[in-house]
Amino acid sequence: MATVLAIKNLVVNYGAVEALKGIDVELGEHDIVAVLGANGAGKTTLLKSISRIQAIKGGTIEYKGKDLVTAPAFRLAGLGISHVPEGRHVFATLTTEENLNLGAYGVRSMPAGKVMEKTKEWIFSLFPILKERRKQLAGTLSGGEQQMLAIGRGLISKPQVLLLDEPSLGLAPIIVQEIFRVIRQIHEEEGVSILLVEQNARKALAVARYGYILELGRIAIEGLACDLKNDERVRSAYLGGSKVSC
Amino acid sequence: MATFFEQLINGLTIGSFYALVALGYSMVFGVMKLINFAHGDLFALGSYLGYTLLVASSSWVTVHFGLWGGMAIAMLFAFTGIGFAGVLMERVAYRPVYPAGRLSLVVSALGMSIFLQNGIMAIWGSRPQAYPAAVVPSTRFSLLGLPVTSLQVVILLVSFALMLAIWFIVEKTTFGAAIRATALDRSTATLMGIDVRVVIFFIFALGPALGGIAGVMNGMYYRAISFNMGWTYGLKAFTATILGGIGNIPGAMIGGLLLGLMESLFAGYVSGAWKDVFVFFILIVVLIWRPTGLLGEKTAEKV
Question: What angle do CA A41, A45, A77 make, to 5 degrees?
Answer without folding.
Answer: 145
